[in-house]
Write a structure and sequence with these properties.
Blueprint lengths: L10 E8 L6 E7 L5 E6 L7 E3 L5 E2 L3 H11 L7 H18 L3 E3 H15 L1 H11 L5 H12 L1
Parallel strand pairs: 4-6
Antiparallel strand pairs: 1-2, 2-3, 4-5
């Protein structure tokens, strides 16, 4: 596997672990040239449902987009990468269990908000404030009140 730091083609697997649910394998690798370490994940190659946007466009589900949007909401919050990975896995499992060929983006957003609410209330509010695009302060206040209970 090519090193993401220097591009060297020879890397060594230093540690291998199976995820808690057994659905993926986590490998710690070390580059033979620059000696930096990084993590890779092995998952089965499955096809997720297409995402139907609010304007009717259809796009492929993107794991990286899901992770980056959740990571942005969790930025500078006390949530580990492992917790984030587990939340993403639960969302992906839910998408697969739906058995649908398409899923509305609103449904995906709700799944993300449910997981963020479990992980971190501040991240939940951050994501919801952008996702729901509040029109006024009262809508935002009701969301904060809901979380405060």
């Amino acid at each position: 596997m090519k090193c993401p730091f220097c591009g060297h083609l020879e890397t060594q697997v230093v540690e291998t672990r199976m995820s808690e649910d057994g659905d993926s394998i986590r490998r710690r690798r070390q580059c033979g040239a620059c000696e930096k370490r990084y993590t890779t994940y092995e998952r089965p190659d499955v096809s997720y449902p297409n995402v139907v946007k609010k304007d009717g466009r259809r796009t492929e589900f993107q794991h990286s987009k899901l992770v980056s949007s959740m990571a942005l909401a969790l930025r500078k919050r006390p949530v580990s990468t492992e917790q984030l990975d587990n939340a993403v896995e639960r969302i992906e499992e839910k998408l697969m269990s739906l058995g649908a060929r398409e899923v509305p983006s609103t449904r995906l957003g709700e799944l993300v908000m449910r997981e963020l609410k479990k992980l971190d209330k501040v991240a939940y509010i951050r994501f919801a404030s952008v996702y729901r695009s509040f029109e006024d302060i009262d809508e935002f206040k009701s969301l904060v009140d809901e979380v405060s209970k």
